[in-house]
Amino acid sequence: MRIPLLAGNWKMYKTIGEAVDLVEALLRDLGDTSDREVLVCPPYTALHALSSLLQETPIALGAQDVYPEPQGAFTGAIAPGMLADVGCRYVIVGHSERRHVFGEGDALINRKLHAVLGSGLRPILCVGETKPQRDAGEAEAVVVSQVRAGLAGVEAGALGNCVIAYEPVWAIGTGDTATPADAQAMHATIRGTLAELYDREIADTIRIQYGGSVKPDNVDELMRQPDIDGALVGGASLKADSFLRIVHFKA
Fold first, then answer.
1. What is the pTM for the complete model shown?
2. Which is the catalytic residue, given 37, 104, 129, 167?
3. Longest Cα separation, the chain
4. Is 167 an annotated catalytic residue?
């Protein structure tokens, strides 16, 4: 059985004090999450403060990005071991903003994924098409290509530590959301690609999240889809009440 993963990607929001306040509010009203996993990914500056708050709690800590080297003269970069040292369990790699704002390609994203796995952390590999690609009928080909490139060289034994997040770029921060049927169709395509790369039994164990304007009023229907195993949440994770409603989706 795949345990749903509900993750908040805070992007470049929240000072340390604001991050602490948000986590304290989440913990105060979190309730029972024994059948799902909850994750927050704050900015680097808040990781240390939140690590101590989240110890021995049901909420895991993650990072929004990483650099694929253990150390070196890489000004401004953060190594996987540093993230492990501060208490992270997950690392997002290949988010659409890294791909399209910062120009990261599949080869670098694959290096990051391997570096994350090599440090004992769990990567969340993001894939997704732009609106022009979808309008041109290329969505499936783009996403399959990103999955294959992102997982290149990953052995079957390590795949279980990976999560995939399908985030249609045209739906991120826009208020637009893929219909549940469209999201399910792409999730099924991703799972079919995993079956081709590995086998069906392994593919059926891998969690595939949906990301792209997930909100309290659409999470229930999204989570009712058979191949959607959680959500990678942006703006709605910045307030405790909206993120908690997403965490406690009703499938």
1. 0.97
2. 167
3. 48
4. yes
